[in-house]
Design goal:
The chain is an alpha+beta fold. It is 22% helix and 19% strand. It is built from 11 helices and 20 strands. The N and C termini lie far apart (60 Å). InterPro entries: Kinase-like_dom_sf, Non-receptor_tyrosine_kinases, Prot_kinase_dom, Protein_kinase_ATP_BS, Ser-Thr/Tyr_kinase_cat_dom, SH2, SH2_dom_sf, SH3-like_dom_sf.
Length: 505
């Protein structure tokens, strides 16, 4: 498959026969010092010694593939799950240059698809910093048998871990404590030198657990950082638009394929919607915003209008359509609350980055498999030059989702996004009902400014309505943070049973 980028294939910075010196440095990266006459720039920093890598020496260069990967461009390296790869260069944090120890071929690989060999991160059962609620959601996916399990970092005890196990229609959690000698135990009568040994033991015998461990919890492939190395401004010819997904006020959205290898979504911006130069500046910021609950911006086509925005493809479309007309119409409250928590998590990340969405609404949330929700179109509203939008009283401006200080005085902050989140909650609980039913935009802003707030929607629990009212506080500074909203939504349903099982009792 040829590269769509139109660049001749260039060798990466590495050496074939010349010995390089590896020095351990920080930041989980590697650096191999090239010879003085090397024509290549120096590679990135080496990975430091990892206590979870026996015999790693000066740095771990052998990694293990966590998933299958099919090359997207000719410079990529295809590999299979569990394949051993030698990492040669990490100068680009998203795309590393590697050699397969199975095929001996070289090429670029997505760095999120590999982990140091023999590390916990290389194990299917290790989920790292996954919260209890997220662990329960994953383990309770349809079709998983009793005994499906994962190990995660303990939220409240740094250095310890938690074992989460599916038991029929519930999930049990066990604290894994660390010994002073470096081993681990769930019960003091059965210590193990490593988590690997612990898993092997409880896979053979429940030995006090609710059941023996059967299979590791499935994990989705992560989104890659971009389509490929250096594939940011891409030629339009590399995109094939296959199916129109929808049309909005400012353009169309299409399902498409990039380079005949990768499924993507393409938003085409109607000519005159925004300044191409302003968009390029904003897109440069947007592409570096990375979170599992943000739609990943992959690439752009800005050489001429219409501008193309290329993003990851979400199979179930917008949350608004999903709830109103799709499979989401029959979802029950626990799933709706979980979806709300996911949106809050994405917005909490934007909050930490000092970034404002400006148009948070169900139409700008996209849904994937297993009810995964991601925030889309963040930041684009600021760039729109359409008079019907920028005049605020125009027909295209989303008055009913907008905080009064933003609608009246153009004061957009993360706190005005919090107001919009409260409106979004009404859309979710009513399965897509338009806010302030029966009221015009002019009536809405006038009434809200006088203190009117939407009454509690049908089928909305009182605690959820109280969260909405907090979001609609007249004083922006008194509205909650997204960090608070994320925690509140994630803990909305508190289990009455103990958080952890204790095998010592």
């Amino acid at each position: 498959m040829g590269s769509c980028c139109g660049k001749p294939k260039q060798p990466p910075p590495h050496t074939n026969n010349t010995q390089t010196q590896m020095t351990p440095l920080a930041n989980n990266q590697m650096q191999a010092k090239p010879p003085a006459d090397s024509p290549f720039p120096p590679p990135a920093q080496p990975l430091p010694n990892n206590p979870m890598l026996p015999g790693a020496g000066g740095g771990a260069t052998i990694f293990q593939a966590l998933y299958d990967y099919d090359a997207r461009i000719s410079e990529d390296l295809s590999f299979k799950k569990s394949e051993r790869l030698q990492i040669i260069n990490t100068a680009d944090g998203d795309w590393w240059y590697a050699r397969s120890l199975v095929t001996n071929k070289e090429g670029y690989i997505p760095s999120t698809y590999v982990a140091p060999e023999k590390s916990y991160e290389a194990e299917d059962w290790y989920f790292g910093e996954v919260k209890r609620a997220e662990a329960e959601k994953r383990l309770m996916m349809k079709g998983l048998p009793t005994g499906t399990y994962l190990i995660r970092k303990a939220e409240s005890a740094p250095g310890n871990f938690s074992l989460s196990v599916r038991d029929g229609d519930s999930v049990k959690h066990y604290r894994i404590r660390k010994l002073d000698t470096g081993g681990y135990f769930i019960t003091s009568r059965a210590p193990f030198s490593s988590l690997h040994e612990l898993v092997q033991h409880y896979s053979k015998d429940a030995d006090g657990l609710v059941c023996a461990l059967t299979i590791a919890c499935p994990n989705d492939k992560p989104v890659t950082g971009g389509l490929a190395k250096d594939a940011w401004e891409i030629p339009r010819e590399s995109l094939r638009l296959t199916r129109k997904l929808g049309a909005g006020q400012f353009g169309e959205v299409w399902a498409g394929v990039w380079n005949n290898t990768t499924q993507v979504a393409v938003k085409t911006l109607r000519q005159g919607t925004m300044s191409p130069s302003a968009f390029l500046t904003e897109a440069g910021i947007m592409k570096n915003l990375r979170h599992k609950h943000l739609v990943q911006l992959y690439a752009i086509c800005s050489d001429k209008e219409p501008i193309y925005i290329v993003t990851e493809y979400m199979t179930c479309g917008s949350l608004l359509d999903y709830l109103a007309r799709g499979d989401g119409a029959n979802l029950q409250l626990p799933t709706l609350i979980d979806m709300s928590a996911q949106v809050a998590a994405g917005m909490a990340y934007l909050e930490t980055q000092g970034y404002i969405h400006r148009d948070l609404a169900a139409r700008n949330i996209l849904v994937g498999e297993n009810y995964v929700c991601k925030v889309a179109d963040f930041g684009l509203a600021r760039l729109i030059e359409d008079d019907e939008y920028t005049a605020h009283e125009g027909a295209k401006f989303p008055i009913k989702w907008t905080a009064p200080e933003a609608a009246l005085y153009n004061t957009f902050t993360i706190k005005s996004d919090v107001w919009s989140f409260g409106i979004l909650l009404t859309e979710i609980v009513t399965k897509g009902r338009i806010p302030y039913p029966g009221m015009s935009n002019a009536e809405t802003i006038a009434q809200v400014e006088r203190g009117y707030r939407m009454p509690m929607p049908p089928n909305c629990p009182e605690p959820l309505y109280q969260i909405m009212l907090q979001c609609w506080n007249k004083e922006a500074e008194n509205r909650p943070t997204f960090e608070y909203l994320q925690a509140t939504m994630e803990d909305y349903f508190v289990s009455a049973e103990p958080s952890y099982r204790d095998l010592n009792q």
